[in-house]
């Protein structure tokens, strides 16, 4: 008891934080022994000099605070600063040698899973380049091993584990959805195909499970773009089609690795030349930088091309042409996982300018853009945390409002969903769109006849 | 007592410098061995080009975004870190001591200038301490050891300043100055002062992760 009080006393703000039944039932089952052993196992066996350097050299200067959307959105409350989050999690665990209380863990899982998007913006503001996202992912790893991961995101991991996709999409539903979209599209575009399991195609197109689950229109759009561009492409019919990876965000590294392996093995089975993925950021992070490493590839075994890059290629090579540029004023949100994560921000601007008449940038932008507040698995923790997520995203809303744009382009699924929530909550009167939505709207939807090479201009 | 003072003024100086230099070298070697043994994946990110790019970018005053957003802190911090080396190395009385031992010498700062610069260092440390008490996000992170670290750096400068001016207890002030200087040197490899060599390494890593893999800037 005294321990709990001490921890609370140290923190100037003790707000009631949300929790959920998975967290609570997990906490109820913990014993002091298990807590101690798990924390020490992860911190001793699963880390190395990098972790040691981060905790032993932080000079407590607080400069990372300025970087964090959560800190800025909560009136500069220090408990939301990146190092502040480390203090309330890792430092406490180290100081007590793993012997932390249930209340401490309730707070720790809340911080790591819902108050940090692991966006790595703070790594750019620390003079030493300390990567707080890495430390928060370690906390998530501990919480995963203690089985106190929030309910909704744990469910997506369970789905990954059982079906190799995030949303419990059954194999027949997946195939059926693709064929349904193909059929619909063929009413508009003669000869359009969504080729399933074609061996040796130039491109394997992969998406995240929410697309077949409730955004099937995006598959329609992608098929139309592929068709118009005359791309030799295919989609896999078997598990491995989903490139998303929520396990990466709960510290369930083993399942995260299985997902990445199934994904690359699918591409290998189809003998495709490269993988193109839809507008998703975390899926890119998983397949480009995280999942591949877990299964032993420093860089992905296949060339992984994000939609942004692919659109850029199609437009600059003239494989698709824009009939009439998009008229409304647009702004562009740089998703962390493809701008700070892959440097595609300038390309994104080029594409935007190629398809839109009037573009206004937001400030800050490019690598320095604020996170959408949804990524890193935060939105996936679900409804119990939505209210506080909106409060935590206030600075993002201010940034968006300042652009005065009518349309907000978000080339990432997580960002798209999170930004829609922000726009609604803060009455921003903006329409959130994928870049693909605008390309689909503005491009020349020429009819491609099989056998003809894609008409190059 | 005299034996003690002789020891402090003589062999202990050597011991302190040896611990400082060998300690840092040992620390570096241990980190590299540890990386090889436990985290060799780090090398799949690391490149010299991106490591140096990041380190140099962060050495240019007001180039990184972070430095632009906290200009006062960074200005004081830059000056402080420079003077931390410049003042003791180019101080006439230190050069004289080195000259007595090795018959080598180099350009010295004018004593009056050195005096002012010493005050600047002390002022910077006072600023850091006040900042720790006043700025909420810094206060939140601050523990007792943070003030101890400030004190450890401050003592050699304060005692040096007092000894130079011979305000009072000159002999004792010199002894305190030597002891506190030795203490600071000895503690560098074993405390967060080791950021002297660890920070370039963490910078190299994040600079490489950002530059080499993420194709993004980290400043």
Structural class of chain A: alpha/beta
Q: Report the order of strands and helices of chain A.
A: HHHHHHHHHHEHHEHEHEHEHEHHEHEH
Query: Over all CA atoms, what is the radius of gyration of chain A?
Result: 22 Å
Compute the number of helices of chain B.
12
Helix proportion range of chain A:
40-55%
Poorly predicted runs of chain A are 1-14
Task: Write structural notes for this entry.
The complex is a heterodimer of chains A (457) and B (219). By secondary structure, chain A is an alpha/beta fold. Chain A is 49% helix and 7% strand. A 4-stranded parallel β-sheet of chain A has the order 2-1-3-4. In chain A, strands 6-5-7-8 form a 4-stranded parallel β-sheet, sandwiched between helices. In chain A, α2 packs antiparallel against α7, α3 (32-45) crosses α8 and α12 crosses α20. The longest helix of chain A is centred in the middle third of the chain and has 18 residues, at 171-188. Chain A is globular, with a radius of gyration of 22 Å. Chain B is mostly helical and 219 residues long. Chain B has helices spanning 2-9, 11-38, 42-45, 48-59, 65-69, 71-89, 92-102, 111-134, 136-141, 144-165, 170-187, 195-213.
Helices and strands in order, then pairings?
The complex is a heterodimer of chains A (457) and B (219).
Chain A: H1 2-10, H2 21-28, H3 32-45, H4 49-57, H5 69-73, H6 82-95, H7 102-114, H8 132-145, H9 151-163, H10 171-188, E1 203-206, H11 210-214, H12 216-229, E2 233-234, H13 253-269, E3 274-277, H14 282-294, E4 303-306, H15 307-316, E5 326-332, H16 345-355, E6 356-359, H17 386-392, H18 394-401, E7 407-409, H19 413-425, E8 431-433, H20 435-442
Parallel strand pairs in A: 1-2, 1-3, 3-4, 5-6, 5-7, 7-8
Helix pairs in contact in A: 2-7, 3-8, 6-7, 6-8, 7-8, 10-12, 12-20, 13-14, 15-16
Chain B: H1 2-9, H2 11-38, H3 42-45, H4 48-59, H5 65-69, H6 71-89, H7 92-102, H8 111-134, H9 136-141, H10 144-165, H11 170-187, H12 195-213
Helix pairs in contact in B: 2-11, 4-12, 6-8, 8-10, 10-11
């Amino acid at each position: 008891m005294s321990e709990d009080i001490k921890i609370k006393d140290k923190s100037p703000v003790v707000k009631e934080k949300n929790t959920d039944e998975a967290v609570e039932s997990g906490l109820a089952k913990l014993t002091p022994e298990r807590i101690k052993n798990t924390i020490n196992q992860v911190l001793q066996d699963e880390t190395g000099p990098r972790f040691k350097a981060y905790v032993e050299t932080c000079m407590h200067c607080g400069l990372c605070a300025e970087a964090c959307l959560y800190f800025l959105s909560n009136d500069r409350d220090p408990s939301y600063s990146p190092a502040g989050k480390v203090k309330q999690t890792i430092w406490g665990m180290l100081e007590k040698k793993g012997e932390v209380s249930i209340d401490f863990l309730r707070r720790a899982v809340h911080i790591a899973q819902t108050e940090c998007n692991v966006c790595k913006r703070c790594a750019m503001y620390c003079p030493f380049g300390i990567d707080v996202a890495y430390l928060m992912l370690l906390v998530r790893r501990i919480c995963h091993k203690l089985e106190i991961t929030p309910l909704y995101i744990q469910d997506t991991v369970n789905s990954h584990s059982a079906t190799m996709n995030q949303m419990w999409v059954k194999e027949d539903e997946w195939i059926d959805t693709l064929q349904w979209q193909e059929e619909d599209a063929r009413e508009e575009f003669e000869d359009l195909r969504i080729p399933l399991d074609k061996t040796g195609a130039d491109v394997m197109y992969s998406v995240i499970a929410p697309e077949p689950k409730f955004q099937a229109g995006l598959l329609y759009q992608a098929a139309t773009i592929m068709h118009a561009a005359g791309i030799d492409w295919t989609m896999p019919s078997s598990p491995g089609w989903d490139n998303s990876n929520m396990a990466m965000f709960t510290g369930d590294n083993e399942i995260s690795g299985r997902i990445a392996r199934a994904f690359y093995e699918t591409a290998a089975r189809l003998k495709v030349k490269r993988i193109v993925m839809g507008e998703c950021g975390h899926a890119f992070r998983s397949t480009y930088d995280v999942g591949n490493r877990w299964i032993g590839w420093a860089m992905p075994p296949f060339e992984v091309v994000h939609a942004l890059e692919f659109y850029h290629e199609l437009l600059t090579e003239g494989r698709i042409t824009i009939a009439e540029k998009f008229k409304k004023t647009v702004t562009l949100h740089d998703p962390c996982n493809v701008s700070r994560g892959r440097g595609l921000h300038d390309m994104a601007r080029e594409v935007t300018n190629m398809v839109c008449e009037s573009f206004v940038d937001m400030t800050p932008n490019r690598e320095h853009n604020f996170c959408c507040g949804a990524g890193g698995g935060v939105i996936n923790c679900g409804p119990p945390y939505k209210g506080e997520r909106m409060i935590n995203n206030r600075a993002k809303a201010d940034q968006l409002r300042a652009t005065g744009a009518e349309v907000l382009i978000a080339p990432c699924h997580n960002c798209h969903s999170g930004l829609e929530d922000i726009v609604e909550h803060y009455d921003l009167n903006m329409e959130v769109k994928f870049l693909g939505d605008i390309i689909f709207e503005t491009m020349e939807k020429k009819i491609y006849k099989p056998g003809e090479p894609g008409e190059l201009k | 007592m005299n034996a003690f003072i002789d020891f402090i003024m003589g062999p202990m100086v050597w011991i302190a410098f040896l611990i400082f230099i060998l300690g840092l070298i040992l620390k570096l070697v241990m980190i590299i061995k540890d990386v090889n043994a436990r985290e060799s994946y780090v090398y799949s990110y690391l490149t010299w080009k991106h490591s140096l790019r990041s380190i140099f970018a962060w050495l240019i005053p007001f180039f990184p975004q972070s430095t632009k957003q906290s200009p006062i802190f960074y200005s004081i911090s830059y000056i402080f870190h420079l003077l931390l080396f410049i003042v003791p190395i180019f101080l006439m009385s230190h050069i004289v001591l080195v000259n007595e031992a090795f018959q080598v010498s180099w350009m010295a700062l004018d004593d009056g200038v050195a005096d002012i610069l010493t005050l600047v260092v002390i002022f910077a440390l006072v600023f850091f301490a006040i900042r720790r008490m006043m700025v909420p996000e810094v206060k939140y992170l601050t523990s007792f050891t943070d003030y101890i670290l400030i004190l450890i750096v401050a003592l050699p400068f304060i005692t040096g300043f007092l000894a130079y001016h011979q305000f009072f207890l000159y002999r004792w002030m010199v002894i305190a100055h030597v002891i506190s200087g030795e203490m600071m040197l000895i503690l560098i490899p074993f405390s967060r002062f080791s950021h002297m060599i660890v920070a370039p390494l963490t910078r190299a890593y994040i600079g490489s992760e950002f530059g080499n893999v993420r194709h993004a800037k980290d400043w």
